[in-house]
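In response to a reviewer's request, we include the raw inputs and outputs for one of the modeled complexes. The two entities were modeled together in a single run.
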Amino acid sequence: MADMMQFDLVSPERSLASLKVASVQIPGADGDMTAMPDHAATITTLRPGVLRANGPEGEAAYVVTGGFAEISAAGTSVLAERAVPLSEVTQEMYDSMVAEAHAAHASAKETFQNEPGPVDDAAKLLADMVAMGTHIGLDPNVPNL
Amino acid sequence: MPNLKDLKNRIASVKNTRKITKAMQMVSAAKLRRAQDAAEAARPYAERFDAVMAGLAAGVGGSDSAPKLLSGTGKDDVHLLVVMTAERGLCGGFNANIAKLARVHANKLIAEGKTVKILTVGKKGRDSMKRELGEHFVGHVDLSEVKNIGYVNAQNIARDILNRFDAGEFDVATIFFARFVNVVSQTPTAQQIIPASFDAAEGEDAGAATLYDYEPDEEAILADLLPRGVATQIFTALLENGASEQGARMSAMDNATRNAGDMIDQLTIEYNRSRQAVITNELIEIISGAEAL
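The model returned the following structure tokens for the whole complex.
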């Protein structure tokens, strides 16, 4: 692998990863995207999903819940609100994330009764969260939205 | 003549005090290290966040459609002061200094005819702010149950503040906390968080800024990130405050320990003197008794 770029994953509480990688797959708000060296400079927000970084030591996957990614020719830095290595995600942790998204949705419905915007955003967040669970093989435990 | 027994008790009690303050100092030293590590670990996120926000804000800030969190409400009549202090005392002038800065600020605003609202984080700040500015009180965040401050705590505070902002309760928000310089010095600081100001990174980056593609568009990202920015700033402030509190307590307890040592020395001298006096007295009595026979 000749082409490598710098990849940083930081959460507000600590820095989770800083290494050279060949590519990073990012769950962007408008859809997944893969960043490779010499990618056009881009800033995108994240949706809840799985972030995969392909480095010399194989693939590292993290579950991220939101935040943004800054991609430049030299590297990619992801500033996630919460990021956990995929292997460490437990059903309990995931349940609490879903419950949080659920609560946010409910409170948005209550506060913004005549404005669809924020409610839709919260609904999308919840749906993304549920989709992520199915994706990584955890039970979303949400019978209906 | 001072009673020997009293003196002895006194020495014992000061010795106990010294043990306690010494222990508190050592506990603070350990906690300080942890708090500093936490502050250190949070720094990369905050720095990058500020850099990106500064770029975004420079791009969108001028337009009319800029979010209110960035451009402000167009007024500055109502100020929200968020006073962050410790949950515990016995840390020297730490709490008092923050409260004093906030009080001076509040009084200045009141003198200018503005409305002041106060939100406190930490019990000690609430107590001292309530005494003088009780009628301006709007709320209190209790962190006494929290052992390790996490981003979640900051998010909750930020949500509270943002809800108030959305409800039009205030125009400008300022946080008060102590910036950690080193163990013996912590600077009380006032920082405006709403409307947001990002000036730190602008100077160096403005010229060579890369042109980014934004996905979704700039404004949507900004609207998403500004609330997070408030949480990040509060989180940084909470961590700085945590380190400052431990630092302040450590030096306060160091002083107290040394003070207790001095006091023990003095009391011991006094005790020995009076013991000597008692012995001399007894001897005089015996000798004069023997002579009288």
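As requested, we also summarize the result in words. The mean pLDDT of chain A is 83. Chain A touches chain B at residues 8, 10-15, 28-30, 33, 40-45, 67-68, 70, 72, 77, 79, 81-82 (CB under 8 Å).
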